[in-house]
Amino acid sequence: MSDIKFYTHLPVQKSTISQLLSNDTLFSPCPPDWVVITTDIKNSTSSIKNGKHQLVNLIATGSIIAGLNIAYKASIDIPFFFGGDGAAMLVPFSLKEDILNALYEHKQNTKKSFDLDLRVGSMPVSEIYENDHKIMIAKAQITKMLISPVIVGSGLHYAEEVLKANLNSLNSCTNPLGYLSLEGMNCRWNEIKAPNLENEILSLLVDVVKPEEQHSVMSKVTLEIEGIYGDIEKRSPISLAKLNLNPAFTKLQEEIRVKLGQKNFFRTLSASFMTLIGKFYLPNSKKGKNYLTKMVESSDTLVIDGRINTVISGTADQCESLISALVKMENEGQIYFGYHITSASILSCYVRNMEADHIHFVDGLGGGYTQASKMLKSKYQKEL
């Protein structure tokens, strides 16, 4: 019988990420009857060059929210991973059909509204295991407000690459309409400048060359990051002082089109009005200030899905020190890495309620994760 509450029942690990990664006994294998579901936007680099970075992030965020809203109704926690231009989830088989149907509708809406191709695919975890890849997972206390899944093993990225190559795009869903709910999704913040004027924003991807060395090498990389930049709160690109809501009608129209698959003047007008109120209410009320504080603590700046994905704020000297350390590890054959440096980050958000249940997905401005991935892939291609 499937353990549909597998992830729900995993204990929360409260050590630092580097300590957690160094201890393989704290990780459990994902049940073989679970399913990997992935999405990504085809030709996202071109879309980002055309100024659609926030739209790309919002569509990817919508992929996660589509799954989370279905899982929430079933009282099941599922691990999810934001990648800038796509996303991945691990789900019990019992949720597979509903989530895929919702994503099929999200795919249709994305094509109809924005002429972007959202690719969607799924693969049983058992198939991943049959091809000698692992998915070992732990649940980590990242900040006071944020608990995130941490994966060691190449299984998730194996599934993503196979699904992309086969363009498994869900043309066979039997009952696709009516499952999609993107309630709670919003993207109402201006680009967020680095906390300090002298800081820059680094989007970084690190992949370990030898799967059997992932625990030790990933621990070493995260320890290097902690040593140079400090803990995750010190190096966060999101700060209270730089948050600024944008009530512009045109910006919110895009959000509503992603949510509904069509324009809706009155929903957009309502969202614009509420955002304008929030612009003054949030920084000037006790409840609003509490939400903003929790929002910073709930910003997802570190994703570990078999490789390290992180957005960091720091000085140019700190960045140079980290890149030098990573180059050394790369030259020693331990890792490949890609990065992108910019002056700001952007947020796309999922707010189920303002008190405690919200998460905020972070990417570097100008397609930070996408640009870093492009560099990373070019290094692999040179090895072929």
Number of strands: 17
Structural class: alpha+beta
Q: Which bin fits the share of residues in helices?
A: 40-55%
Fraction of residues in β-strands:
15-25%
Low-confidence stretches: 168-172
Question: In total, how many domains does the architecture comprise?
Answer: 2
Evaluate the radius of gyration: 20 Å
Number of helices: 12
Series of H and E elements = EHEEHHEEHEHEEHEEEHHHHEEEHEEEH
What is the averaged pLDDT score? Answer: 92
What summary fits the major beta sheet? Answer: 8 strands, mixed
Tell me the overall shape. globular
Our measurement of the CA-to-CA distance between the termini, rounded to an integer number of angstroms, reads 42 Å
Task: Offer a few descriptive terms.
globular; five-stranded mixed beta sheet; alpha+beta; eight-stranded mixed beta sheet; 17 strands; 12 helices; 42% helix; 2 domains; 384 residues
Structure write-up:
The structure is a single chain. The protein is an alpha+beta fold. The chain has two domains: 336 residues, no CATH class; 32 residues, no CATH class. About 1% of the residues have low confidence. Strands 1, 2, 7, 8, 11, 13, 14 and 15 form an eight-stranded mixed sheet that branches. Strands 9, 10, 12, 16 and 17 form a five-stranded mixed sheet that branches. It has twelve helices and 17 strands. A hairpin with a 5-residue loop joins strand 7 and strand 8.
